[in-house]
Design brief:
Layout: H1 2-10, H2 20-31, E1 40-46, E2 56-62, E3 68-73, H3 75-79, H4 83-98, E4 102-107, H5 108-123
Parallel strand pairs: 3-4
Antiparallel strand pairs: 1-2, 2-3
Helix pairs in contact: 2-5
Amino acid sequence: MVQEALSLAAQVPASWPGSLPEFLVYQELERRGYDHGVDFTYQSPLMGGRTIKGGVVVDFVFNNPPDLAIGVQGTFWHYEQGVEVKARDILAREQLAGLGVTLIFIDEDDVLEDVEHYVAEALRYRDHSRLGR
């Protein structure tokens, strides 16, 4: 597993601004024919982003379909940083729901295990993450 993760990490361009799991989801979306900038945006600031209290930055926000967003949940940054971080993620989901957008989380472990399956599930509005259970 470690060797496979190192192999995957080697595929990430130095210019990539996010995590390995985010890059794998991005690649999978492109493989499925989704076009960045047309069908979805990456690291989209909503409601003021990080500069405004209550704002959020969502990993993938879709224009097609217009009511879907995907957040990649890294184990360290989203699950091991305490209840405040989990609460912030749940609140972000609720805020987006108020805008008519469904935020589906995909856990980092699931991306590394089978990115095709979990992206397909997210595109069907199915959340298998720890926060979605």
